[in-house]
Q: What sequence folds into this?
């Protein structure tokens, strides 16, 4: 990786007005990455505040039921704020603080990254503003209130499709209005360099822990690591440590929505093509004129028309493979894990669980699959009820 | 040094201070855009910037975002826009520059895009999401076809200004304010300082844009540069009058050109 490029992907495609800010983040990150004091502070936050290391749980009942490979779940859902998002925001907000910034801004889809950012901002005394598509603020009203409870200001974005991509657009616009005291805390391994690298570095603890924990329990490497991909931060975090271990299959599970052939999906690797958007060269769902296409997934966290550039590169080189998982398969896996293991996964993470259900029976009993359970599913209960035609009254 | 092939653009600054209007291509229709190009030239525009509509215009404020959505909803495509420009070229003589996000060029195919520019009479490109560091993305091909890549400098550019200016082609777009495009009541940036830094390394003309709407603002900006660029104020008139916008836009351009000429 050189100058933020991953093969042909990556780069820094932002307006001139933001280049100085992007370089400032780059310089600061390079400095603090190598600073033992910063790493010690971050390590302490990860341990005492976020609850790391997260557990690696042997899903014995699921393993027995599927009758093939042994299945382990990496319990990122047990982190503070309920998902892997906290790993990245603790890193970025601490960095913002070191840079002398007093305000952080962030985009959010379903609200998980917004809640995590608001949390870290409350902890570290930063002003926080979150941009969220109007459609998402309506669908996820509870998360909006949660962010407000944490002291953040939430802006409903009414431009374009009023979803995650428009929230990113609006956060970039806001950053270009006010760069001096503000850091844009990006929520995934996307955007201009150094964000894809920096977010991956803050998330790679997931894969590192998986490797250590599995070594302790089984004395060996897994055969496959599965994670869902929207922008791709939990997957990048789970995969990164295993990239040199070529015996380990890395499998990203994309949101196929109603099916990749229906046009109602968010399966960027299956159906997207190379393009340049949101600061990076990567793969995007787009039409023949390069207009970014509206995407669809029942899970708001995967509802993004692009993917991080390092994933695009891993897909191109074949080091990782990416598979589409439909709404129906994800919902069914959501219910399955709840009943089988007593763990309600985030609908996003349920995409990875669904793929494990597909491949485990065909694998031998001495093989091991690790599923990154990136978040907990409390936030999705109402949506699942609606999907199954159940009316809830609170 | 300015490449001789880009002189067509620089010459737009030869008749006193330049006035550069921006309109979104295809808003409200390609047919109206064509009439606007002709009418704005007649009204005194020295160069026209035409926006190629992109679904996610991250450097634009609300007014131009809405124009973009109107144009896309009206069916404006890259090919449609090129065809319209080619037709307008039968009448229009002044330089025409496309404002296009990088993905529109990339997805069309860089080489084909440049060929179309030459064929249809597009003299240059402004690519708001392609900064100096990434200009090689298209520079090799654009140079081959003699299509100028117009560089932008912003209030945050500081020590980057000289490096950018040294490589400038056609003219330099000086962004007057932080943030996105849109009408501002006041421009507080020290733009003069920016244009002076440019002057130290190149004689490529500088035009100032972002936030300008009134004649006295345009005059003030023209005083410290070689011209003024106005987008949102014009696009707002187009939004208001729709199909009937041509006379109102022409009158506005005439008034603004007069204001910058008095500097």
A:
């Amino acid at each position: 990786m050189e100058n933020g490029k991953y093969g042909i992907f990556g780069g820094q495609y932002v307006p001139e007005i933001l280049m100085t800010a992007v370089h400032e983040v780059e310089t600061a990150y390079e400095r603090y990455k190598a600073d033992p004091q910063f790493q010690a502070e971050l390590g302490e936050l990860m341990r005492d505040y976020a609850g790391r290391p997260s557990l690696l749980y042997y899903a014995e009942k699921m393993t027995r039921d599927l009758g093939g490979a042994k299945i382990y779940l990496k319990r990122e859902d047990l982190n503070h704020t309920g998902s892997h998002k906290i790993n990245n925001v603790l890193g970025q907000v601490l960095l913002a603080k070191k840079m002398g910034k007093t305000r952080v801004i962030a985009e959010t889809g379903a609200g998980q990254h917004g809640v995590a950012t608001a949390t870290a901002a409350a902890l570290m005394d930063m002003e926080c503003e979150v941009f969220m598509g109007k459609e998402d603020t309506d669908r996820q009203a509870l998360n909006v209130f949660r962010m407000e409870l944490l002291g953040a200001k939430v802006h409903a974005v009414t431009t374009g499709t009023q979803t995650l991509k428009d929230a990113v657009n609006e956060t970039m616009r806001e950053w270009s209005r006010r760069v001096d005291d503000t850091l844009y805390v990006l929520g995934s391994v996307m955007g201009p360099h150094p964000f894809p690298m920096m977010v991956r570095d803050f998330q790679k603890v997931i894969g590192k822990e998986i490797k250590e924990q599995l070594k302790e329990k089984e004395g060996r490497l897994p055969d496959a690591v599965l994670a869902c991909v929207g922008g791709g931060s939990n997957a990048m975090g789970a995969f990164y440590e295993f990239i040199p271990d070529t015996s380990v299959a890395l499998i990203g599970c994309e949101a196929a929505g109603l099916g990749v052939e229906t046009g109602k999906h968010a399966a960027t690797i299956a159906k997207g093509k190379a393009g340049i958007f949101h600061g990076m060269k990567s793969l995007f769902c787009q039409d023949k004129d390069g207009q970014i296409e509206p995407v669809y997934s029942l899970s708001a966290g995967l509802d993004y028309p692009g993917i991080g550039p390092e994933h695009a590169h891993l897909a191109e080189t074949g080091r990782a493979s990416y598979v589409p998982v439909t709404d129906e398969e994800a919902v069914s896996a959501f219910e399955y894990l709840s009943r089988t293991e007593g763990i309600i996964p985030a609908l996003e993470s349920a995409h990875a669980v669904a793929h494990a259900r597909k491949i485990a029976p065909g694998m031998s009993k001495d093989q091991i699959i690790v599923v990154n359970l990136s978040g907990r599913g409390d936030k999705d209960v109402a949506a699942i009820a609606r999907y199954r035609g159940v009316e809830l009254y609170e | 040094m300015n490449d001789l092939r880009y002189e067509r653009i620089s010459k737009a600054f030869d008749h006193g201070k330049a006035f550069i209007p921006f309109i979104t291509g295809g808003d409200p229709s390609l047919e109206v855009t064509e009439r606007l190009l002709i009418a704005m030239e007649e009204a005194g525009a020295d160069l026209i910037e035409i926006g190629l509509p992109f679904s996610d215009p991250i450097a634009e404020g609300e007014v131009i975002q809405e124009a973009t959505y109107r144009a896309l909803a009206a069916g404006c495509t890259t090919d449609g826009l090129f065809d319209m420009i080619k037709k307008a070229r039968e009448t229009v003589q002044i330089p025409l520059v496309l404002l296009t996000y990088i993905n529109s060029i990339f997805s069309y195919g860089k080489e084909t895009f440049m060929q179309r520019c030459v064929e249809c009479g597009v003299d240059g490109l402004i690519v708001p999401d392609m900064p100096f560091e990434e200009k090689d993305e298209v520079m090799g091909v654009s140079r081959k076809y003699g299509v100028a890549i117009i560089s932008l400098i912003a209030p945050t550019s500081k020590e980057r200004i000289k490096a950018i200016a040294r490589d400038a082609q056609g003219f330099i777009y000086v962004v007057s304010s932080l943030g996105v495009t849109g009408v501002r009541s006041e421009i507080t940036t020290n733009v003069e300082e920016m244009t002076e830094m440019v002057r130290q390394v190149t004689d490529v003309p500088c035009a100032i844009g972002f936030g300008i709407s009134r004649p006295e603002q345009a005059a003030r900006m023209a005083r410290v540069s070689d011209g003024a660029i106005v987008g949102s104020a014009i696009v707002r008139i187009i939004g208001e009058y729709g199909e009937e916008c041509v006379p109102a836009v022409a009158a506005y351009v005439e008034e603004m050109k007069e204001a910058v000429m008095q500097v």
Summary: DSSP finds twelve helices and eight strands in chain B. The mean pLDDT of chain B is 95. The radius of gyration of chain B is 17 Å.
